[in-house]
Design goal:
By secondary structure, the protein is an alpha/beta fold. The protein has 10 helices and 16 strands. It has a single domain, classed as TIM Barrel. The strands form 3 sheets. Strands 3-4-7-8-11-12-13-14-15-16 form a 10-stranded mixed beta sheet, covered by helices on one side. A 4-stranded antiparallel beta sheet has the order 1-2-5-6, with helices on one face. Strands 9-10 form a two-stranded antiparallel sheet. β3 and β4 form a beta hairpin. α1 packs across α2, α3 packs parallel to α4 and α9 crosses α10. The relative contact order is 0.13. It binds iron/sulfur cluster. Iron/sulfur cluster binds next to loops.
Length: 410
């Protein structure tokens, strides 16, 4: 819930607006779990505990994967699930106690049954700025597991256990900031799950994350990464027409030069082939004007790493290059990601020379491309490696891809 909504809700309970706003700010800015609401009333926040952490040293600092535990939920509507960021106003002296969750909105809620708990994984990635200032990028999860079934991804092995609520997404920022004292500069929705498969919750979470009385993360420092789920992309595009939203970063995982390969490693492609996906990307408001569209390409040895693949990919990305765009500027950027082998992976990681070679091939064909340096591989915190081995392949309730005949990713 944004500060505006929170103040309104508090007002319904007879709490003065300035007291409510102060409590909201204290929760987000100072990490205070309790705040006075005046007249002997108080508000306390419940945050899901961090139950596990893994670290890996890099030249920029420590990469830290942390896991928050949510109570299990036997109610598929999610009504009994614990939210990691819930503020409970004790109004019992005057009227019935109320729960004010910090985020609201419609969302598809849990689908799994009989789970003792759910673990949410987030990753803190250190960064050192130009002037030596240290900060972090926080990679957040939007679902527990994922239904998309990408063949190269660890999370896909879990299937979809449930989608997160907006509060659970924001709770990852809260835990990183106030429990791990990390200075978060950027937030990327690249953790477990497909954000646009949980688009309403992701939009509500971003509203909170950018709230000036709350985390106040600039919209331009947030990026949503998607495999290109068409209905979710349309919904996000509509939202990007709202004031301030045009600065939101969008990353699309392409990962293949053609439909045959993409359908093989990404079942979503059977529902939304690459040509259709490119049309949908071109409809993003102000495409590439405020921020380049980021195209992710996981380089997998023997699958998508040949020179012919680079040529096909460059053709596909032509409308987003300097040569292909109407105003002669790069509208997109290719982010080349060396494959991080998941558990029991059929493919190895690519050789360093293969990565550099592929980068050269696309660049000489006019594509603006960078490579992502691999961080977190040892702790299974790298891209495509999030996922709990313990609950992997457990029974879950499959969710049909809205646009796909492919079914769930499990
Ligand atoms: S790559 Fe992303 S969308 Fe695909 S299965 Fe993994 S988490 Fe889901």
């Amino acid at each position: 819930m944004t500060s505006l909504g929170y103040v309104r809700r508090a007002g319904e309970c007879g709490v003065a607006a300035d007291m409510a706003k102060k409590a909201y700010r204290r929760f987000f800015r100072e990490g205070a779990r309790e705040a006075s609401l005046g007249r002997g009333r108080a508000v306390c926040a419940q945050v899901a505990p961090i139950v596990r952490e893994e670290e890996e040293q890099t030249p920029e600092g420590e990469i830290r994967k942390f896991v928050q535990r949510l109570e299990g939920n036997t109610d598929p509507t999610g009504a009994t699930g614990q939210s990691p960021v819930r503020m409970v106003a004790d109004c019992s002296t005057t009227r019935t106690a109320r729960h004010w969750t910090l985020s609201s909105g419609t969302q598809r809620r849990p689908v799994a049954r009989d789970m003792p708990h759910f673990d949410i994984e987030s990753v803190l990635i250190p960064m050192v700025g130009r002037q030596g200032l240290k900060s972090h990028t926080l990679c957040v999860s939007s679902q527990v597991g994922c239904a998309m079934g990408c063949g190269f991804c660890e999370t896909a092995q879990m299937g979809l256990l449930r989608s997160l609520t907006p509060a659970e997404i924001v709770g990852q920022w809260w835990a990183a900031t106030h429990e791990r004292q990390a200075k978060i500069k950027n937030i990327v929705f690249m953790g477990m799950g497909e954000p646009l498969d949980n688009v309403e919750a992701v939009i509500r979470a971003i509203e909170v994350l950018t709230d000036h009385n709350g985390p106040a993360v600039p919209m331009s420092n947030i990026m949503v990464s998607t495999v290109g789920k068409a209905d979710g992309l349309r919904r996000l595009c509509a939202q990007m027409g709202e004031p301030g939203w045009h600065k939101l970063g969008i990353a699309v995982s392409i990962n293949a030069p053609n439909d045959a390969i993409r359908s093989q490693i990404m079942p979503i492609n059977r529902a939304t082939p690459m040509a259709e996906l490119r049309e949908a990307i071109c409809e993003i408001p102000h495409v590439g004007t405020h921020r380049k569209i980021c195209f992710g390409y996981v380089l997998i040895p023997g699958v998508n790493d040949a020179e012919a693949h680079a040529a096909e990919l460059a053709d596909y990305l032509r409308p987003f290059t300097r040569d292909g765009s109407p105003d002669g500027s790069h509208k997109g950027m290719l982010n080349l990601i060396p494959y991080n082998p998941r558990r029991d992976s059929p493919w190895p990681a690519p050789e360093e020379e293969a990565v550099e070679r592929f980068l050269g091939w696309v660049r000489e064909r006019g594509v603006y491309a960078k490579r992502r340096r691999t961080k977190g591989r040892d702790t299974m915190a790298a891209c495509g490696q999030l996922g709990s081995e313990a609950i992997r392949k457990r029974r879950f309730v499959g969710v049909r891809l809205t646009d796909s005949p492919a079914g769930s990713g499990g």
